[in-house]
Amino acid sequence: MESENAIATEVIGLAIKIHRQIGPGLLESAYKECLYYELKKTGFYVEKEKALPLIYDEIKLDCGYRLDIIVENKLIIEVKAVEALNEIYLAQTLTYLKLAHCKLGLLINFNVLLLKDGIKRVINT
């Protein structure tokens, strides 16, 4: 998980940079695009809105799940711009980690005054 942690550290730094520049109050899609742009610019292999199938009873089902951002096929980023993070967002991120077979995710809510208060690490054990 060492490389996931290193990636997460860089992602958090870029998210803070974005938040300082444009602040809270925008749509989720704006923050997602900015973060995607910054990650690509940094040289990471990054995918946005990646389809995530559900395997149920050994059948692959396309249920329309999409990862906001996945970095280096290791770190899932779920971007939010909501009044407050609640347990369902944490559960959603954990489910995405399990379905994608990833160990670490970041749930980032940009709709806060200090971004550090809007970041949650989610670990798939």
N-C termini distance: 11 Å
Decide which structural class fits the backbone: alpha+beta
The ordered string of helix (H) and strand (E) elements is HHEEEEEHEE
User: Are there runs of 5+ residues with pLDDT below 50, and where?
Assistant: none
Radius of gyration: 14 Å
Total DSSP helices: 3
* Largest sheet features: 5 strands, mixed
Outline type: globular
**What is the total tally of β strands?**
7
- What percent of residues are in strands? 25-35%
- The overall pLDDT, averaged over residues, is 95
Name the strands of the widest sheet in spatial order: 1-4-5-6-7
Return the domain count.
Answer: 1
Helix content class: 40-55%
Concise structural overview:
With 125 residues, this protein is of the alpha+beta class. It has helices spanning 2-22, 28-42, 87-100, and strands at residues 46-51, 54-56, 59-61, 66-71, 75-80, 104-109, 119-123.
